[in-house]
Amino acid sequence: MADSYRGGGSFIVGETEPRRIATPEDCAEERHRLAAAAQAFAEREGPLEGAETGTPEDEGTIRLVRRAGEVGLLGAAVPVANGGLGLTGVGLALLAEALAPVWPFVRSPVEQAEAGMLPLALFGTPEQKLRWLPALTSGERIAAYGAAESDIGSEALASGTSAALAADGKHFVLNGCKRGVANAGGADLFVVFAKVDGTQLSAFVVERGTPGLTIGLTESERGIAAAPVGSLFFEDARIPAENLLGEVGQGRRIAYGALNVGRFKLSAGCVGGMKEAVALAAAYANRSRQFGKPLSAFPLIAAKLADMNVRTFVAESVVYRTAGLIDEAASAPGSADRDTPKDSDASDAPDAPEDSDAPEDSDVPDAPDASDRGCRAAEAFAEYALECSIGKILASEALEAVAAETVQIHAAGGVGIRDGKVERICGHSRAARFLEGANEINRLFIPAALLRRAIKSDLPLIEKAQALQQELLDSPPLPLSSASPEAPLAKPGAILSALKKTFLMVGGLAVQKHGLRLEREQTIVAALADAMIDIYALESALLRSGKQALRTAGASAAAHQADMTALFAEEAAERAGTRSRTILASLERGDELLLRLSALKRLLRFVPGDATALRKRIAARVVAASPNGPE
């Protein structure tokens, strides 16, 4: 029977039944219609291909934001009561994925306008929401988000912008500068972060035209020019006290609360980009001929198409599983009254070096009203912040790999990448790895967040690791495992179980050796994060495939998903072995190392599957489903 652990990181110690997860195949028809309508609008308005090479001041970008607001596509995460669509998990994923091929999804003007609304939607007072959100969601006014500075990047916690309460008690005086603010040239208000009295990070809404605010010239970002960026300069800018978001000192909560949503939406956008890239590559491989036959007929090209499809399938499975968890948490009765993660201190969190740029747990303030949809959504995203980071890393890096292979397939046909869609995907794929928190920062966050939950007794991580140590001492060697035609998901399931045990063994040893100072060992922490990513990804694909197999119709889809899951499992097992040996060699020496390596070998004792045959079957289906494919 599956364990009933819930909440962020529970996949490491628990099990889930296929029926309990959300998959793209489950999406309600009306949500598909919403995504189709959004895509049709974006295609009608123009995919902003011209803005890629046009001037940053192109008014078309601002016009697009206003038109999106007019038809109700702004403020997807804003509560309906405030003029938004009120979407949380699956709805946000569908919308972000649908818009990815037609809007430059990692830095589009529409996406950045929504980023400026999020802090207000999640943390604003009723008065602030009523004052600003209706005009923002309608496109009448445009918001922007300012956290980055020259010397700190996007690390809001290290903000050098200062704020001080004026003598009249009715204003805060801001001094400093924000860089790289998307939509700066056309935005009407900005959410910015500054430190009150030099220590208390706080969030403020600053309206255009505020005395002391100067907006610098807009400029293009390399490869992602569709949303031009600018700078904000504050020189004794007087901000009304009622423009403070939350309370003084709650800036961290607000920054990471909005960041969780941004990471999730970015991962969904990456899935949309991957689907577009796979479709473009397969169609081109089918119609382009070399040596008398289509490119798709060559095994090396077919293998690329198979790997691209597997990456897309796995990332999509992760995004929609996480979306379902977020929806479930946001809709749970009394969710706004649940205990939420609080600021970590030395008593309950591993120490980090003074110059560490690893983020703390995402956090939200106590909800004042259980009926507040914004508060419930903020809690839900905070609860699954770990999974949002996993999705962001997995999808952005998969997109970059898929984009590179799309270019390679086009080049293999004798042409370069001077194709608007291919070129756009290639440029934006690189940006996805550093927006919404660089992937390196997200990797440091994932194991740290899991360890904090274990220390707080939210997850029985330590108990599971101790039980595994005894199991490894008492149990006989694990039997060899190979694929079975009658049970195609049995071996992936066995590999998943082995990956979880391997993580507990290696991660438990790392904690035992380094204690609460483990966060200083960033290479080990990053490797443990990669282990968690593989576990969550494989489990998500496995559960989705299992759920598809339960359906009375769609046997061919079930077989296709099972093959993709099996191929990913084979590769994940290989990565786990290499990664774990490297970590163990850094933790042990001599006979102790040999003992640990022996246990690792027992855990990962599998007969290799025929990855070549899996790729051939996957590629054949991809090619057949693409335009100009074989009859």
UniProtKB/TrEMBL annotation:
Residues 1-11 have a biased composition (Gly residues). Residues 249-332, 385-450 form the Acyl-CoA dehydrogenase/oxidase C-terminal domain. Residues 346-366 have a biased composition (Acidic residues). Residues 144-236 form the Acyl-CoA oxidase/dehydrogenase middle domain. Its cofactor is FAD. Residues 1-20, 331-372 are annotated as: Disordered. Pfam families: Acyl-CoA-dh_C, Acyl-CoA_dh_1, Acyl-CoA_dh_M, Acyl-CoA_dh_N. Residues 499-602 form the Acyl-CoA dehydrogenase-like C-terminal domain. Residues 29-140 form the Acyl-CoA dehydrogenase/oxidase N-terminal domain. Keywords: FAD, Flavoprotein, Oxidoreductase. It comes from the Bacteria. Belongs to the acyl-CoA dehydrogenase family. This is Acyl-CoA dehydrogenase family protein. It comes from Cohnella cellulosilytica.
